[in-house]
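Possible race condition, two jobs.
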Amino acid sequence: MAAEDLIPDSEGAGRFLPWVVAVMVFFAALAGAAALALQQATGTWRNDMANTITVEIPPLKNSKVPQGNVNTLDQARLNAVMKALVATAGINKAEPLVAAEIAKLLEPWLGDNSMDGLGNLIGDLPLPQLIDVHLSPGQPADLSLLAKRLAKIGPDIHIDDHQIWLGKLIRLSQSLQWMMLACLVMICFATCAVVIFGTRAAFTAHAEVVQLLHVMGAQDGYIARLFQWRALTMGLKGGLIGLTVTAIALFILSRLAADLEGPLFGNFTLSPFALLSLALLPLVAAALTAFTARRTVLRELSQLP
């Protein structure tokens, strides 16, 4: 007896199984892609911002100079801050950002600095002087001592420690990853529940044939394999459909994400390992469907006289 005789495609709850698996794979792939993208982004943020701080020197009142040049008083404060940074242990390198680099940081919010009129606008703004400071990984810097030294130079000079902001961002990212993992677990349970329901319905619909095979001496493993093979093919079919829809959705999302500018979003392109993991989802769904169907049939057979 062929498997399609026990679980036909055109009757019973089993005919909806491929579509249910397709929906489950679609949501699982989206959740997995989001979790993997967040994991990659977290690693990028950690690498880019680890062991770095920024010292901000606000411009003095009435010290604005066209095109972002630094006047004598601002230059004196900058030199004093640089000396304080050099004198602080644990600081590996300190580089002041020029006006063009500061304008580059403002481009995601103000647009391209090369546009007519916008370059003059940025040049006329009283922009603060920023110093990019790299800390030594093996020797922690005493930021409290540095803050006291900078306060003597100017009370409005402050340190922007990226570690505090980065820590909050990483915790948020990790929380979202755990939520995505919880979604994957719930999707697996929901898939198993649907397979159990469909398998029981098919088993009941063909109870007479199953009982006849059972009386004729067919082993439980043989009967279970009939249901298992049919569930495997239907699960694989649904998984491929879901993966195809997911690929289309991710392509559209990647095109939309490419228009986003800013250091926070970065590059959310999935790595080859992440793409391979998503490509294996139909096989995982098919294996889960087949295993669940087999366990369900064996349980039903164990209750037969």
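Job #2 (started ~2 s after job #1):
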Amino acid sequence: MSDTAHARQNMIDSQLRPNEVNDERIIEAITSVHREKFVPKILSGVAYHDDDIQVAPGRSLMGPMVFARLIDAADVKETDLVLDVGCATGYSSAVLGRLAEAVVALEEDEDLAKSAIAILADEECDNVAVVTGPLVDGLAAQGPYDLIFINGMIDDLPQQLVDQIAEGGRLICVLNDNGVGKATYVTNENGLLGKRILFDAYIPALEAFNRKAEFTF
């Protein structure tokens, strides 16, 4: 077993399974994706540590444990159309692509999008399409989506993204609750939205979703 394969297995055994991520479809999907390819080469040696890894100024891959728990909570189905918001270099999209029918990977940083396209092609993620555009707007033209997955902590959930959840679909995000990240599960059933807090999750914020400061006098 290579060093990276050993590190990947150690991630599964020491980070994921102890935190009740035991769905074999998810384990297989995460095992099959080479996380080290999605981080800067200088950081490839720590790709499987339980840490967020910066891939560009203000942008990070979230730590494996929180990421896996969010994926587990999302209950990704083989027939799902997924919108992956803030895909960065494409790691989340690669994993989601192993689980879903198709993934639209949305990224507003053009350099990150170019990296994602190249790496996803190398990982043979043929059912993932990378699109460049504002994260907060989503991509209504390709929706609605069975699952919307947001990569990073956000201050507020924009209505335009909520509107892109398909009937019977769901959205997974981490909401900023006075500085504490709350993994949140949003559903759309018969046109009615439901929201459930799942667990505390400490991940980097997505600046595109920062709440605008208000002027006071």
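The chain has one domain: 3-209.
Logs attached separately.
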